[in-house]
Write the structure tokens for this entry.
Amino acid sequence: MTKALEGITVVAVEQAVAAPYASSRLADAGARVIKVERPEGDFARNYDKLVQGQSAYFVWLNRGKESICLDLTIEQDRAVLDAMIAQADVFLQNLKPGSISKLGFDSADLRKRFPRLITCDISGFGDGGALSHLKAYDLIVQAETGLCAITGTAHGPARVGVSVCDISAGMTALNAILQALLQRERTGNGVRIQVSLFDAIADWMNVPVLQFDYSGYHTARAGVNHPSLAPYGAYRCADGREIIFSVQNDREWVNFCTKFLKRSELDRRPGFADNMERIRSRAALDEIVAGRFAQLSSNEAMSELEAAGLAYGRLNQIEDVTQHSHLRRVPVPTPAGDIRVIAPGAIFDGERTPVLRPIPGCGAHSEALRNEFGGFSRQRTDG
């Protein structure tokens, strides 16, 4: 499956996170991905210097690509890009709104010239509406979509700790490109794809929006408790470790009361009879649950939760995650030497440690690619 897209060429005028996420996963699947960087390189190369002097973001999202630096304000470099697109199956870009069109590579125009080409434009807010002209970064979109409003605690909103809007847009783009490639196999025609960070993460906001639209229900910020299920959250044990557990249905609630709390009468108490009642009575319920956890070590609590048939886990810190028994790491060559990244999530035919292709240096393939496509560009210009 690592060669499922062998023979597919992707040209990506990309930066930051969203488009590089999509193109890196296409590269993982065997596609040839040509990453077009500005002369000084993708600015994500300089987000930090924490991975052997390299950016954690960049080494995560750019494996398996060829890097060419082009100055698209120069006609000669635009001709090279044009020649690459003419030979490509997919053209992907996430420059600031309007930039790619001003440079002469509007997706609608490209689709007319190259009917088999699949184009994918990633933006903050799409190409219509009052905000479509704005630059948009992850936290801005988290705020605009209301994600921050339901994340955090009663004391205030918070940002989700990773760039979920960028990542969801990249995942959405990846899924759409794969659909388009399958459709092209059947019809022979490409398609124009538009993905916005706003639309991608707004889809994830369906539950709180539906709850408000149809019942006026406001999702409360609940920290590491679940806003819509109770009991479901983190509780401190006698040894100081916090354990998260979940009650998903009435059967589990009865088991929890009987086998963990040792108080079978609670499942019938007014205010605790069903999930909505338990949410309204969360403060009283949490006092009872916290008291029981405080009597047990974390290992004892997990053992009793497992015996009761309930889902549970530890509230880990990053240093705990790095030692987690389920965390799979795979090596990736980089210009600064091999590093180990977390493995892709999907496992094909039991291969838990796939071979990942190298991360390119800035412009590492510029000369080779200019030589490869320069002839095409001169032929097109001369002809």
